[in-house]
Amino acid sequence: MTDTVFPTWRLYAPANFCSSMFPKRFLQNLRTLSVANIATNIHSQICNLSMQGNLEEALSLLYTHDTTHSSMPIQTYATLFHACAKRKCLQHGMALHHYVIDKNPGAQNDLFLTNHIINMYCKCGHLEYAHHVFDKMLHRNVVSWTALISGYAQSGLVRECFSLFSSLLGSFCRPNEFAFASLLSACEEHDVKCGMQLHCLAIKSGLCSEVEVITALLKSYANVGGDIADCYRLFLETSQQDIVSWTAIMTVFAERDPEQTFLLFCQLHHESFLPDWHTFSISLKACAYFVTEQHALAVHSQVIKRGFHEDTVLCNALLHAYARCGSLSLSEQIFKEMNFCDLVTWNSMIKAYALHGQAKDALELFQQMNMHPDATTFVALLSACSHVGLVDQGVKIFNSMSDDHGIVPQLDHYACMVDLYGRAGQLSEAEDLIRKMPMKPDSVIWSSLLGSCRKYGETHLAKLAADKFTELAPNSSLGYVQMSNIYSSGGSFAEASLVRKEMRDSKVRKEPGLSWVQVGMRVHEFASGGQHHLERLAILSRLEILVGELKEIGYAPEINLALYDTEMEHKEDQLFHHSEKMALVFAIMNEEKFPLGGNVVKIMKNIRICVDCHNFMKLASYHLQKEITLRFPDYGFASWWNCWFRNTIYFIVIGERPIKRVQIAILWSTLLVACGVLGYVEIGEGTPCFHGHGRSNRERRPPCLELGQPSSNFCNLDNKEDTYSVASQSTAVSSAEFRVLCGSFFLERPQCAAPETALITQIPGFNGTFPSKHYAGYVTVDENHGRSLYYYFVTSEGKPSEDPVVLWLNGGPGCSSFDGFIYEHGPFNFEPAKSAGGLPTLHLNPFSWSKVSNILYLDSPAGVGFSYSKNQTDYITGDKKTAIDSHAFLLKWFQLYPEFLSNPFFISGESYAGVYVPTLAYEVAKGIDAGVKPKLNFKGYMVGNGVCDEEFDGNALVPFVHGMGLISEDLYQEVNVDCNGNFYNPLNDNCTSKLGKVDEVIEGINIYDILEPCYHATDSEEFNKETYIRLPSSFRKLGETSRPLPVRKRMFGRAWPLRAPVRAGIVPTWPELSNTNNVPCTDDRVATSWLNNEAVRKAIHAAEASLVSSWVLCTDAIYFNHDAGSMIEYHKNLTSKGYRALIFSGDHDMCVPFTGSEAWTRSLGYKIVDEWRPWSSNGQVAGFIQGYDKNLTFLTIKGAGHTVPEYKPQEALEFYKRFLAGSPI
């Protein structure tokens, strides 16, 4: 290198610099030492200065004592290059590089030092020099490659990054985790395929569990809009999580699911990770989406504890969060106490004032700014002017942007100006501004103009705005709805009808207007007219009285807002029955259940409020002497808002877009806890959690990834009594009570109407955090008899608001669905108790079906598990009665959990549920066809190793045992000839004799899985002789093994004796067959001991012992009649209607062999659309599949027994997930 390329190092070492920088005694001491000792001292001083950030002093010390260069350690130069890179001091770095070449030429060949030089040039953005040094290297290692790749990645040069990475692989140098992390950081939206390829390569390289790679993958997938559930799974796969990976996953959730970000913040705290600056910043960003300041207060307390309370960036985040949560006073307090205010600080405070309608304060603060404003500053100012109608002031500010500050207006500024003109009725000015815009208007601008046109009845301009808006947002109903309303308001009902028809033809649906109000601990939903509310008639009666009272003090219905051409009185009825009016009246009727004597009424609405309801609420507030808070989403315009009205009724705008129904419930529930229970009266005018200022709609809540129940100290992060002393000082509740109340802030699943008593907060035996929400309880299907069915509901760990709801039924008949919960696909794995009388230990099940679905375990019929009836005659039942009761259960259950009503719904089960499932599915489909409400979103069903038909099931065993090599070819041919293929109902003695030989050969094999040994408990009760003789011969020696300890191999009561298919008439239960609760080859003590523990029963909301004495897996308390006949006709009926069906079988089950299921599915005569082939899981053949027409699929699971998820949990989850998603298996 020459001096023309690198500035000479002497330029940075003036003669008097060192003498003025260091004490004379220090320099004198150096002169008395040897050269080697001097070099050592210089190295030590340089390292200390570099670590302290005194780069210039460190360089000066090196240059002044350049005579020691030959003895200077390489580490000294590396330390200085590192300091130059950290501070991005290119000139100092170049000078140092020249110095090394000049004074110590041999050092530049040192691999360690050269890597530091490359890193310095990359960090300083001089990639040309970095690549030049790299090309001159005699030897390279992975650090050399990684440093250069990282440099190109930081500069956004993706193509060059991948080119270097390819060269790295071609050089037979194995990339490390930092190389993958650097390359992944360069992947942008258009590089999603490259990111996936890197992910695969990282897996092959064994680096996918490294925290650096996982963190980079999280960021990469988040940037390209990847599924946040997949991101969370990646996070869980990290071999050693650190605060960086925690912060990364929180960043993924911050905007798309802020509740989960806060839950993650609490979780990392409880797992003893210390949040850093970045973690707090992301947490506060999420808190800005919440409705109250309680979340921000919790994070703020930790910021103070960690000593970050004076950090400007975190103070800005706090200021913004408090303002967005409705606490302007806290924002002002943060602003006044800050030691230094940057531009973001000023903008945030101005925006806070604008958000709260304090335009005067925003303008005054702008005048006090001691720095130049930017584009964000003017967005906040124009928004403030728009909300209070300061048109002249707003125009002046807009013009000053380019004239006085040199800032070119962007889309956001024009949107504010259009809104400003529109609110003030200056529509021609708004239209003229849009035409003169230097860029193309977006949907927000047209929606703002459209809203203003509706307010002022400007039909022609509204049509233009609606057309433009629909063109930009074709899936939004806003344009159609507004135009229909404008035509209706003007009396043009024919045109309004045409607009609505056009919307239907475009398959665009309008979200129905709904309102919610919380009374006591329940959230009540109202549609127009309160159609489905139990107290509808009483509400309408009270509403009629209130309307009459308000008319006497000046209320005049805005009948021009009626949307249909009807008589005058009917038009008034349309207005009177709006959902928010119904909610208000219901709240008044129950005011004794409200805090503060019912003086504050809070209503949530999912769409804009009309002018008539505005006037109605205003007068109702005056007449009733109550403060009414109505919260609703804003579409980017609030043209109806009269600012003088805020002192009487508080309207809180939620972002710029309509929010989802399921989101509103949790917002409202949180609001009531904060403002009702704790005694807060005024909520403020801020914007809460789920929708921010951005222009794009947030996706429906995923939920996701639900992190489980908060403990009682979840909000109090320090677990100290005084953490929330400031927040709770205005109420009488104690700090401990306050923490319990705050628990409801962190519910990750909105509960529109779910009974609060159903929520499960803890389970004995499990000490961790639930991965999702759990509910349990009873639904009464017959009030007269007191017939109640027990359920246990586990919400999805993925996206509970979208994932399917799957009903699980076990067989028997008479067996509890806790069979599936405990032993198969429930959320926990059970470890037997270590001591007699102890409880089993519960661990999370990595293959739980709740990973991808909301799963509902049902004990049915009454008398099974925890289900019961107060009328003993109900225990005489059968297939059809069970199906009817289960259908009644579903209808009532979905009324309790309406937020899941739109989710796809499936029915699933195994063994005798081969009857339960299709008969229930038939009832559900029949109800849907008949218009029964609520309408279930039924999509299909699954049956595993299920009974179906007497003939097909009975004939399945012999071909199965022959195919599995359990009987000889000669015996098979003999029995086949003598029985003529009719094995289930032998017609001659020869056939019976040969079938007896078959029984003798296979009688010692485990019926549930022919590969599994049998357990015979040494302490089990002996069967009496009579009972023993009654048992099939194949069962008499089952379980006689040398195993000394009982180990559960298969579940009690789920199978029938060999060649004993379910026939019409009374079906015997296993307890009836054996006359005991013990069955050979089984041991169910884990389930029995756990579910009969008093603490467990209380935790899962099981009935008292007086109603359900003791839990048994399979009961003999019912008298069950198989009265539905063959299931084949049921399957034909359901599949012909388009419902999807999956029939799956473990291919080693001898109880209900797969040969029977394969035969009856083939007998339906459907066309084969997917010929017999293997299907794979985890890269291995997992079984075989054959697909038929009409969405019927038959599938086997290789190596599985009777209860497939118990034997092959990973494979079971795989086909289950694919079937629910409608993906190829």
Automatic annotation (TrEMBL):
PPR repeats lie at residues 110-140, 141-175, 311-341, 342-372, 374-409. The keyword Methyltransferase does not apply. It is found in: Secreted. InterPro entries: AB_hydrolase_fold, DYW_dom, E_motif, Peptidase_S10, PPR_At4g14850-like_plant, PPR_rpt, Ser_caboxypep_his_AS, Ser_caboxypep_ser_AS. The keyword Secreted applies. Residues 554-631 form the DYW domain. Keywords: Carboxypeptidase, Glycoprotein, Hydrolase, Protease, Repeat, Secreted. Gene3D superfamilies: 3.40.50.12670, alpha/beta hydrolase, Tetratricopeptide repeat domain. Pfam families: DYW_deaminase, E_motif, Peptidase_S10, PPR, PPR_2, PPR_3. Belongs to the PPR family. PCMP-H subfamily. This is DYW domain-containing protein. It comes from Stylosanthes scabra.
